[in-house]
Amino acid sequence: MPAEFAFPDNAAKTAEAQPEFQTEKMSLSMGPSHPSTHGVLRLQMELDGEILTKADPVVGYLHRGDEKIAENMTYNQFVPYTDRLDYLAPTANNMAYAIAVERLAKLEVPPRCQAIRVITAEMARISSHLMGLGAFGLDVGAWTVLLYSLNEREKLYKLFEELTGARFTTSYTRIGGVTRDVPEGWLGRVNTFCDEFLPMLEETLSLLTRNKIFHERTVGVGVISKADAIGYGLTGPNLRGSGIGLDLRKDKPYSGYEQYEFDVPVGTKGDCYDRYLVRGEEMRQSARIIKQAIAKFPGGDWYAKDARKIFAPPKDKILTSMEELIQNFMLVTEGPQMPAGEVYFEAENPKGILGFYIVSKGGGVPWRLKIRSPSFCNLSILPKICVGILISDVVAILGSLDFVMGECDR
Amino acid sequence: MSADATTALKGKFPQVTDRASADHPAVDVPPADLVAALQYLRDECAFDMLMDISGVDWAEGASPRFTVVYHLFSTKRHEYFRVATPCTGSDAEPVAPSVVSLWPGANWHEREAYDMFGIKFAGHPDLRRILMWDGYPYHPLRKEFPLAGLEAPLPGPDVEEETGTRLISAPMAGGPFVASPGEMNLTEAEPRAKDQSWNERNVKPE
Questions:
Q1: Arithmetic mean of pLDDT, A211-230
Q2: Of A128, A345, A372, which Cα lies nearest the Cα of A233?
Q3: Residue from the list B52, B104, B183 with its beta carbon closest to the beta carbon of A357
Q4: What residues in A contact B57, CB-CB < 8 Å?
Q5: Distance (Å, whole) CA A313 – CA A302
Q6: Domains of chain A, residue spans
């Protein structure tokens, strides 16, 4: 038995102590089509009985070349592609991308636009965490949680549909604004959702938090130390579960997050259970942020009116006025005009920190657009933590990391 | 504080120069000093987190043709720092030093840059492709690689035999229609089909 890892499990310790229990190594491929790999992740594992001695994640099955595509289209045309990164939280991706390009253009959007973006991003966070929670429960054998959380998520999708016209791939932001203002009465319905959601969330979480079986499957499993979490570039609930309170909404506020009061939950041990607790608390905090944003929802414009070379004028103006028609024509054919330069912007997305590095040589097309995806970095720790554990714990670890392959593979 | 980091870094490594940036402080570091400079930033300037490694291709004929860009973040001061280094070696096989010894998370980022640009990271423990499959012959994010893709063998030769499928370039129907970047007059910059004007009927010239 190689000496570089220690077995946490008792049975495994026995096997380690008594070499006659060791058997021939077996290799097993899990995925790319496997219910617990949440998409198309493949794990190439080396097993000694039930114990993993090596795990090598194989990613890239969902690689679509988003970065290459971005170099061949205008900034606005790329917005729909950002939906398809973390497809469980499209509005949060939209916002991160829009702010990155606005930083390049040195453009500030009005407070109303910022508030709309914050509300949609936090709704996306709740929706993404609900899916993550349900799938995690399902992975470790708790069916009911998924039914509860999908029920709540459906209500969110109704609200998204009303605002953006689409349930899943919303493409809601534009560079310098959003596609349309909030509909009449929509904020009230979001507020009602938050009020009804919180008791439902408590009920859903109560299925797991003190559940004996859930404890057995998650407490002390997949422990990630602080140093490892930093070294591997983990972000989001996975980093905070390990006890590091890094949250860009708090530490490097964007889109007006500094106006809202919310807490950043952190774990103590960094195991699967801590990551679950962090996600549960984050949903409560998201609902808190949404309610604050609605309470002080600002008036005024919902797009940067002075950004004539970036944001398209209203449709009725395009159809009736020469000036606006020309402006719209230039925007559609040449894209929003950006200065030359380099920017890197990161936003705190549900899965972790989503970053966009844009190299511009001027004009409407980026020269290089790199997407720093949180799921990619979060998965890179797997070879480190998936050693010396039981094969059934791999399922719990994958569920607790809550990754999305659309974002990992880009 | 980040301005101090730039000054301190320049004092320690005289070869370091400022890099144009629209947001965070940024420096150019020669490849020979890269690992030491990043270690200095990590240990002395509290930039403890490596957020991202990104390759950039400045197109054929540019010097340097490839650059590797590192984004560091300080979890204590909440600031970013950008470090760029030009690649040495030839256009076909650019080389950059590996920083896996400093941050284990650099492993996958460097594999990705190798996969997409063909940048060889000297000292990387396991430099394999990550998003494309092993044995794929091209580096897709290089500027000469067309958006439509190129014909390539499938991962296993038996796959081609069994399924009768081939990996061919995508029909682009004349696209993509985008304006060219850079300062130029409208006739030069106007949207036009670039080098990919073939479609289903008008096949790509060999």
A1: 88
A2: A372
A3: B52
A4: 368
A5: 12
A6: 66-364+392-401
